Amino acid sequence: MKNGFSLFILAVILGTCHGGGLRKNFYKKSCPLAEQIVQNVTWSNVATNSALPAKLLRMHFHDCFVRGCDGSVLLDSTASNSAEKDAVPNLSLSGFDVIDEIKSKLEEACPATVSCSDILALAARDSVSYQFKKSMWEVLTGRRDGSISRASEALANIPSPFFNFTTLKQSFANKGLTVHDLVVLSGGHTIGVGHCNFFSNRLYNFTGKGDADPSLNSTYAATLRTKCKSLSDKTTVVEMDPGSSQNFDNHYFTILKLHEGLFQSDAALLTNKGSSNVVDEMLDSNKFFTEFAQSMKRMGAIEVLTGTSGQIRNKCRAVNS
Prior knowledge:
Layout: H1 2-17, H2 34-46, H3 52-64, H4 96-109, H5 116-129, H6 151-157, H7 165-173, H8 179-186, E1 193-195, H9 201-204, H10 218-227, E2 237-239, H11 251-257, H12 264-267, H13 273-281, H14 285-299
Antiparallel strand pairs: 1-2
Helix pairs in contact: 2-4, 2-5, 3-5, 8-13, 8-14
C-alpha cells in the first residue's frame, strides 16, 4: 500500500510539472462565458491596436519561462520587492491594461473564478487568432495564480536575444521544451518589433573590434544601420519580420534562410544541423501552423499551478491580501 501511495504522489508531482490538471473548458460550469468574454475584449482591442498580438504572445512566453505559467509577470513591484515586470527583459512588455480590462469583465460575470494566468494564455491565443477569425491553437485551462514575482528570476530564466544555440537549447530544456519547440516558437518573431540595443552589437561591435556579425546578410545590415545609428540607441524599434511584422505567418523562416534574422538568437538556429532542419520544415506554412499550435500547448503547461495550489487573484497586478 505504501509503495502504491508513493507512486500516486509521484504521478501528482509529474502531472504538476507537465500541465497535469489542465483541461478543455475548465470553466464550463463555473463561468460558462469565460472564454467568450476573453475573446470579445481581446478582439475589440486588437481591432484598434494591431501591435497587440505580438505584445500578448511575448508576455505569455515571458510569464511561462519564470515559475511556469502562473501570471507572475502581471504582478506589480511593491516597496519590498522588485517584480518580474521590472526586470530588463520585461521593461518593454505592454498590454497589461488589456489583461486588466478582461479581468474586470470576468470579475463582474464570475467573481473570484478565472485566474489571471488563464486569462493571459487565452488572450495571447485570441490576439494572434484575430487575423484568422478562428482559434489558432487549443488552450487548456485550469491554471492558478502564483504569489511570487522576482525581477532576478526573470533575468535568470528568460532566454536572451544574445544567446548562442547551446545556451538557447539549455534554456528551453530547463523548461521541458525540445529543440523542435525552440525553433517553432521562435517563429513567433514573425510579428512584432525589436529594440536596437538588443542587436546593434551585430552591426557595430560584434567581437569587440568595431566589426559586424559575418553571419548577418550584409545588405540587410546596411539597412539596419540606417535605423539604429549607434550602439547606445535604446529607443528605436525595428520590425523583426520586415514588411510582414503584423501578419502571423511563416515568413520569419524565409528571412532566416536569407540570414536576415534580427537577433543573434535567431541566427543561432542555423548553426546546428538539427535546428536548421526544423527551420527548413517550417518553410511549409501548414506545417508551421500545426507545429506552432502543439508547441504553444506544451509551453502553456510549463510548471502550472492547478487544483488547490496558488490562488485566483482578485486583481492581476497584486496578490490577494
